[in-house]
Amino acid sequence: MDKWGIVIWISDLLHLTNVSFTSSEAAVILLVFAFVINVPFGYFRARQKVRSLNWFMYIHLPIPFVILMRSLVHLDYKFIPLSLAASVLGQYVGGKL
Question: Which segments cross the bilayer (predicted)?
């Protein structure tokens, strides 16, 4: 299965291909997803030595999932700063747990 086959499979699995969202609904879905997925990664990141490989990985591993969700809900590049802010906030909150 190639890269796009996996994306289509995940999209079908989530049933997002047949669902239409307004721009504000899609933005809320993306921001909540970016925040929630980054909380556990922030929790684990805070327990690693700063600037170690694990610390770096816990920061960057959720990014492809946020990008995938942004494409699945059909939002363009203008929402990248908002999703980045939600991701940073999720990392911060997870680190404080």
Answer: 26-43, 55-73
